Amino acid sequence: MVRAENLEVRTRDKVEIEIGALDRTDFLVKLSGDLDVHDLRTLHETLSLVLSTGLSTIVDLSDVTFLDVRCARELVVRSRLYDNLMLRAPSWQAEASFKVCGYEARVVHHLRRGSSREEPSQRVKARQEAHAGGEPRGTPALAM
């Protein structure tokens, strides 16, 4: 059993990383403020922590006011490695960083429960079922 309380990691005065549970199968990591190279290690460790649970993780980027290209790369690389990680709702500043790096296709702009887009837990379940059925494993699905 994983029990999650809302946790807040303050890396510097203008940056917050908040971890909370959406429900029993999803974590929410909310990033806010100016994330730059000084925050990269904390971002990496936070993602490692939540992804180690195996639960689906949604990273909300709506309150990011600056996203260093190294932090953008960390987020995108992790989303490619882990099917249970989804990047969503980027601020225009975060979206600009992803676009400069050529990563904009990895970010879901608006996602609400009940939408036609799959949640991370649904993507993982579908992939596990396909793999168990003997079908060859394909490339990770892109969250767009």
Write the layout of secondary structure elements.
Layout: E1 7-12, E2 15-21, E3 26-35, H1 40-51, E4 56-67, H2 69-81, E5 85-88, H3 92-101, E6 107-108, H4 120-132
Parallel strand pairs: 3-4, 4-5, 5-6
Antiparallel strand pairs: 1-2, 2-3
Helix pairs in contact: 1-2
Q: What is the compact description of this entry?
A:
This protein is α/β, with parallel strands linked by helices and 144 residues long.
Describe this structure as you would to a colleague.
With 144 residues, this protein is of the alpha/beta class. It has one domain: STAS domain (Transcription Regulator spoIIAA, 2-Layer Sandwich). It contains 4 helices and 6 strands. The protein has helices spanning 40-51, 69-81, 92-101, 120-132; strands at residues 7-12, 15-21, 26-35, 56-67, 85-88, 107-108. Strands 1-2-3-4-5-6 form a 6-stranded mixed β-sheet. Helix 1 (40-51) runs parallel beside helix 2 (69-81). The longest helix is centred in the middle third of the chain and has 13 residues, at 69-81. It is globular.
Examine the coordinates and then state which fold CATH places here, giving the name of the CATH topology. Transcription Regulator spoIIAA
Q: What about the largest sheet? A: 6 strands, mixed
* CATH architecture annotation: 2-Layer Sandwich
Compute the CA-based radius of gyration.
15 Å
Write the CATH homologous superfamily: STAS domain
Arithmetic mean pLDDT: 75
The total domain count is 1
Strand content: 25-35%
